[in-house]
Amino acid sequence: MIYLSVIIPAYNEELRIKGTLDIVIEYFKNKNYETEIFIVDDGSKDKTVEIIQEYSKKNPMVSLLQNPGNQGKGAAVKRGMMNAQGKYLLFSDADLSAPISDTDRLIPYLEQGYDIAIGSRNIKDENVKVVAVPKRMVMGRVFHLIVQSLILPGYKDTQCGFKLFKNDVAKHLFSLQKIDRFSFDVEILYLAKRHGYKVKEVAVNWTHVDNSRVSLLRDPLNMFKDILQIKRLHP
Length: 235
Description:
- With 235 residues, the protein is an alpha/beta fold.
- The protein has a single domain (2-233), classed as Alpha-Beta Complex (Spore Coat Polysaccharide Biosynthesis Protein SpsA, Chain A).
- Helix content is 41%, strand content 20%.
- It has helices at 17-28, 48-58, 73-83, 103-111, 134-150, 167-176, 184-194, 219-233, and strands at 2-10, 34-41, 62-66, 88-92, 116-120, 130-131, 162-166, 199-203, 206-207.
- The strands form 2 sheets. Strands 3-2-1-4-7-5-8 form a 7-stranded mixed sheet, with helices on both faces. It has a two-stranded parallel sheet with strand order 6-9.
- Helix 5 runs parallel beside helix 8.
- It is globular.
- It starts with a strand and ends with a helix.
């Protein structure tokens, strides 16, 4: 039985996807449980798909899923979640801003009875280190205040790309997901609250990685529009 499924959305990641896979496989290959890894390509226009296809021939732990065109990070994560077979389902960003080793910080909470464990960059913990870029910190704080005030109070960080779900919980929540781009995290947590799932926010290590897919000009406005839609999408 597969214990853990790792879902990594990818868009134009030819420069780092092989390195990411090397790190992820090296970490899990000596674990005493079975792991599957899905790279979900979101319509890449570079050689991302070819690199993953070649990699998967030599590493049966790795599988490629493809969106028909660029649909958004949320759509890519959803595709991975709906195809995964593991007891627990993790999604992680391709840049590994949160190190894959911090999976060990999340799993114990699901073993204790939580339904979801989410990485947080804003919980103080002397055992973790967060390295951020000031302008992105400001954008994150503004978005956080909007989320807190309009739709989802109580969380310190909804946008960290490192979240772990029980299988049946993930299948339920992602089947209801309607937002395809960056604000899907908020939608999923909003749905989790509505359906009474237990969520644990966990401090994780995090390091800003250059070449982010987030636009500081375009995406905050689009994310704000998404937040205003969530309650309407789920009356």
